[in-house]
Specification:
The complex is a heterodimer. By secondary structure, chain A is mainly beta. Chain A has a domain at about 40-135: Immunoglobulin-like. Chain A has one helix and eight strands; from the N terminus they run H-E-E-E-E-E-E-E-E. Chain A has one helix spanning about 30-40; strands at about 40-45, 50-55, 60-65, 70-75, 85-90, 100-105, 115-120, 130-135. By secondary structure, chain B is of the alpha+beta class. Chain B has six helices and three strands; from the N terminus they run αββαααααβ. The chains are: A mainly beta, B alpha+beta. The interface between A and B is large, with 36 and 38 residues.
């Protein structure tokens, strides 16, 4: 691979002329592949209290299993169950209890869904008002 | 934004994730009042499935979601003992997308996609219904006794 040195003066608007970029040099496919690897494959912001989905991407539905216990079903499946889930839950108004959200201990994640458990710091299941989760990994 | 005037691009052979990004930018979320209540374990309370508002917008628009058969085939692959990762994702992306559905058809599609097969295939085959479709306002209005919710014993299927 050749190495390009950036001149001291930096790159001005005129440094790269439009003609220097071949048509289709950057295809949508390349951009899409990079994005799929780099951005969240799934994200959702839920209200366990309502319960309701405030907004989401790549989710087909949610299942309210019990108090503080929800399953998120994925629209475009992940490649397998080895993906990373990050999440955050809020403290409810007028409550001293902080909430945490975690992968539910009774169900391993699957390519098409993951189950969440929301509890207070004492381990009691709770419905937090704001529960956000995002998934990074390979899509099917 | 007038959803009725938006034409869905030809999405066959397009990654479903890209279709969903397009839908999120172009379609208005649709909050369905339908809820799917089901019981898949006699020792647990009833579960309530809610269609995602972005997903429902895609279902009503048409030309975005893959056919159910593609999901079924991926589920079959996942059950195989030597499954490591999906190698037939193209079934989702390359199959002809399903046409616009009514809200009721979309709910039926979602049940078959996301509810356990043991529930929807035999929902009315035992003494008690395993699954019902209801409206949001038919559910209890607060979640105080959430872990005791069950489908009423006296409910019977209209199919019987």
């Amino acid at each position: 691979m050749s190495k390009t040195t950036i001149p001291t003066g930096g790159i001005t608007d005129a440094t790269i002329a439009t003609g220097d970029i071949a048509a289709d040099a950057v295809t949508n496919t390349i951009i899409a592949d990079s994005l799929v690897q780099g951005i969240a494959a799934v994200w959702i912001k839920q209200d366990f209290n309502a319960p309701a989905t405030d907004d989401s991407l790549n989710v087909s539905g949610t299942t309210d299993n019990a108090l503080g216990d929800f399953t998120v079903t994925i629209n475009t499946d992940m490649g397998n169950a080895n993906y990373a889930i990050t999440g955050m839950a809020s403290r409810n108004a007028n409550s001293l209890n902080y909430h945490v959200v975690m992968i539910h201990d009774s169900a391993d994640p699957a390519a098409g869904s993951y189950r969440l458990r929301c509890s207070d710091v004492s381990g009691n299941d709770k419905d937090a008002q704001h529960v956000s989760t995002a998934v990074h990994g390979d899509l099917a | 934004m007038n959803q009725e005037q938006i034409k869905t691009p030809n999405f066959q052979n397009t990654h479903v994730y890209k279709r969903l990004v397009w839908a999120k930018e172009n379609l208005k979320k649709y909050y369905s009042d339908y809820r799917i209540v089901y019981e898949d374990n006699v020792d647990e309370c009833a579960k309530i499935m809610t269609p995602d508002p972005n997903w429902m917008a895609c279902a009503l628009q048409g030309g975005i979601l893959p056919p159910l058969e593609a999901y079924f085939k991926l589920k079959e692959d996942e059950k195989k003992p030597n499954f490591e990762r999906h190698s037939r994702g193209y079934l989702l992306h390359n199959s002809k997308p399903v046409k616009a559905m009514t809200e009721e058809q979309a709910v039926e599609y979602l049940i078959k996609k996301d509810c356990p097969e043991s529930v929807w295939k035999n929902y009315n085959k035992s003494n008690k219904l395993k699954m019902i479709i209801c409206k949001k306002n038919q559910l209890p209005s607060n979640r105080k006794w959430r872990n005791t919710w069950k489908i009423k014993e006296e409910l019977v299927s209209e199919d019987n």
